[in-house]
Amino acid sequence: MARVTAGIGCSHVPAIGAALDLEKTSEAYWAPVFEGFDWTRDWIAKETPDVVILVYNDHASAFSLDVIPTFAIGCAESFAPADEGWGARPVPVVRGCPDLAWHLAQALILDGFDMTIVNKMDVDHGLTVPLSLMFGQCKRWPVTVIPLAVNVIQYPPPSGRRCYQLGKALRRAVQAFPQDFNVQIWGTGGMSHQLQGPRAGLINSAFDQSFLDDLTRDPNGLASKAHLEYLRYAGSEGIELVMWLVMRGALGREITELRRFYHVPASNTAVGHIVLRPRSDGDSYEDFAAPGTELGVPDGR
Asked: Given 12, 103, 125, 273, which residue is catalytic?
């Protein structure tokens, strides 16, 4: 069966992509950011997955205010880099994994999650910047990718609890796929930041570090955080951190933290990064389902 082997949390600051594309990674301002990912690039080169389920938010590239899905899953063969107003990033086309994506869509919908199925969309910096940070500048991404877009742009976004539940459902669905795939789940976005208003430029390092701590030790506590708490302490864009809870939910109860990195500043925010591994690759569906439930049958949570 397919298995979830690791989870990665990562900021997707657009200026990081620009620094890469303009060959500024060795400049004094940017060098500490990219050095912070050296460990992960070495690690993932040795443990490259077959598929990455990449949880991110679209920034009005694929979706406009006319249509705003809460959760959308990309089921296409490929996804082109989006033109975000200054041309598409010079990065490879993202190769999809339709067989697994359609399986996930079916399993998640039957498990009580109303996923929007997307068969054509361009992907912006929210998805391509994390790929660049993990794999560098390359002619072909070494993994296939299933984009999972979460609405954290237009109120109301999904709650942290719902995102955490979605992660658990993703794990169940992955484990029910018969092909032997090594799957990683990445949660992107954040950390604390605000792009407008009198608090523009807000960075709350204490909140960010506490979030990283609790991602490992108390994900249930994180899942209970209200939207207003993110707004108050992490800024208007800090709500992006709920996407990290999708990743955490997919890893099971017990995890090992392999790597953590945090740096201020990067553009007008902080960069956060974490690598987590499930302690047991053999966690079964039954470990994460309510008694008496089966895959594809909502359990009422």
From this structure: 125
Dmax over CA atoms of the chain, in Å, equals: 57
Alpha helices in the chain (DSSP H): 14-21, 31-35, 38-46, 98-110, 125-135, 160-175, 205-217, 219-223, 227-234, 242-249
Does some domain include residue 35? yes
Structure tokens at 135: 């794999």
The tokens of 224 are what?
């209970």
Catalytic residue at 59?
Answer: no
125 is catalytic: yes
Q: Which pLDDT score is estimated for 297?
A: 31
Burial class (CB in 10 A: 0-12, 13-18, 19+), 209: middle
Quote the CA–CA distance of 86 and 267 in Å, as a whole number.
18
Total structural domains within the chain: 1
Looking up residue 40, the CATH number of its domain turns out to be 3.40.830.10
Q: Is there a domain that residue 249 lies in?
A: yes
Judge whether 58 lies within some domain: yes
In-domain check, residue 29: yes
| Catalytic member of 12, 103, 193, 273 | 193
pLDDT in tens, 41-100: 999 999 999 999 999 999 989 998 899 999 999 999 999 999 988 899 999 999 999 999
Region class of 259: left (phi > 0), else alpha (psi between -120 and 50), else beta: beta
